[in-house]
């Protein structure tokens, strides 16, 4: 929970006051006590193995726990160190001193092109003599890609010092070798990507590795070690947040980002908090015979359109977990006539499975347009559709609702609700009526396009 924000789900209906950072731990302890949570504090898990079809979890004090299922929410706790010869002699983001005075008049190489790299560079600009930020991939901006893990504006002051001739630079290429010299300095071999693979040896006083973090899978025994993806940084997951190769092993929190890596928000609290709720519902439905929460509504087109319009104008989950979570409308009936429908909220989009019933089902998401990350949002020469042009809503670049009809044996049929500057989709003519007409066509017998 960000500092200063209110927790909206405190037990007993009590509203917590804004919580300063210094009081966060005590607040969480009070919350756990009020909820009656069974938490073993100061317990470091050292091994997870299989036992009788389930799991046996051991901690450092010798206690063991038997479980049918295990949820791992340990985050990415290890630095992600690229396999570069000599890199062990460099400093890491977590260990390098942050006092800029310690870098006075030094030549500094920062390996990595993410926020931690540029945050470090920004911190040293006033004292270091030369700063190079190096990596094989292009610098991509968060405001252009709509992915908050890309370079944020608050960390990009360094780019001005590069492009406006202040002796700093961004190096596009691979660091091939790091050699520690007898005097404590470094000689670093860089292979440049944009100049026909030219290789150059460059001297530095300091080298700092800022290449992100990864999951620590060392606690798992061989028989239940989760398969890893994305350079072995994250567990490979099904749409239900379950390990693809270890049934019963689930993950929560930032570890779930392998599902939408560098596309969505599962790596961040404003996104994964909704993934955690979806995981809870997955486990209730799978293991405790508790159906996914749903509300009943009439299956007539006007009622379906009203339900969707009401949701897309207030949902935080679909807004934050765009193109990842979806609301789902299931039509009840015998396949010829449907008198009712069920509205399920915040289902992982890829968990929908095949179309439900003869008449299929509908999914509702919020999505950016295709190739949105290739468009400069500040380039006024790039055309945009009018906010009232519902016929061209599918051409929109910015976040907008998309309703899809999933029917057996056919690709999904999509209806786009046109993007809106205020993100308010309430116009009877522009938003509601085109959606009602879509539902009318898709629920007709026979179905029409």
From TrEMBL:
A molecular function (GO) term: flavin adenine dinucleotide binding
Entry's Gene Ontology BP terms: auxin biosynthetic process
Gene3D superfamilies from the UniProt entry: FAD/NAD(P)-binding domain
Pfam families linked to this entry: Pyr_redox_3
UniProt keyword list: Oxidoreductase
Superkingdom of the source species: Bacteria
Name of this chain's protein: Pyridine nucleotide-disulfide oxidoreductase
Organism in which the protein naturally occurs: Nonomuraea diastatica
